[in-house]
Amino acid sequence: MTVGYQAVQWNRFKLIYDVILWFGMAAMIAVFISVTAMTQPEGESYHPVQLVLRAFGLTAIVLLFITLSIGPLARLSDRFKPLLYNRRHMGVTVFFLALIHASLVVVWYHGFSDTNIFVSLLSTNPNYDRIYGFPFEALGLGAFLILFVMAATSHDFWLDLLSAPVWKFIHMLVYPAYALLVGHLALGALQEETLLLSAYAVSGAAFSLICLHLAVGWKELRADRQADRKPEDGWLDAGAPDDIPDGRAVIVAPEGGERIAVFRDGNQIAALSSVCRHQNGPLGEGHVRDGCVVCPWHGWEYRLEDGRAPAPFTEKIATYPVRLVDGRVQVRAEGLPPGTRSEPITLSEDAP
């Protein structure tokens, strides 16, 4: 988590994850170079450097598309949640692919000019007033700068230093970066008829990503409507005890307030904020293990009774008082300060 800021500790899952990632990436680069080289129109040929730089650029945007798809897919189906565990590895890999692509572009197209390479990059084509011939390089540069900032702040050290909201805001810029990359590739491909298929494919992928997020938004909206509660005397109804799956939670959403996760662990029921301190992950979709709620995104843990991470970690989230009235679980709409102990409901041994 955020104690000690030690180097990344590898385990079997991480190794398998990264081996698959790097193998898939290398395979795509190799296939792109091979297929493009074999299908070039007669009388036209790309220099090997051009093939390589385009292969790295296309692989970067495809990997970024996959990275951005994992989040909504995991919200729609639990089978995708394991992919969230090292999603950050994918994001950093996207930056390094983009770095190789950008370096080759600058050297190949601008490195042999008497003009400064960056001045040459941004001033060679001033046609910002039209689509055909648009200086798509500027879009790529904008995306690259965003990816650089994100990669540089990807460690949890920066998450703790900047605070979760600020860190989250910075890393949400990945969506503008993706939009810039789509424009970069699409407008660049318009300059060459042979690359139009790539432009259509990337535009179609962007549309499918939008649809994925809309589907998740609709699902979340429906869930919030079902979970919306108007407090009576400051208390919200969370249902009967047997409505709460053992080891899981039901979500209660006060009007205009933060989602509350009401967890059951055997004969104990307690309520916590449904927002993880790490990356604002959906804690209410996690599970209980050894008396701690485990976030489904990256495995951060918080004790049920006080919302504190187990030692030696120091993170803490808000807790909410709970009570049992006429066979119904009620949760206080107003939370307690993060890390405050709130006595759980203890059900009788013969409770369902």
Fill in the keyword field for this structure.
352 residues; Four Helix Bundle (Hemerythrin (Met), subunit A); 12 strands; 48% helix; disordered N terminus
Textual characterization of the structure:
It is a single chain. By secondary structure, this protein is an alpha+beta fold. It has 2 domains: 12-223, Four Helix Bundle (Hemerythrin (Met), subunit A) (Up-down Bundle), CATH 1.20.120; 235-346, Rieske [2Fe-2S] iron-sulphur domain (Rieske Iron-sulfur Protein), CATH 2.102.10. It is built from 9 helices and 12 strands. The strands form 3 sheets. Strands 1, 3, 4, 5, 9 and 12 form a 6-stranded mixed sheet that branches. Strands 2-11-10 form a 3-stranded antiparallel sheet, with no helix packed on it. α1 packs across α2. It is elongated.
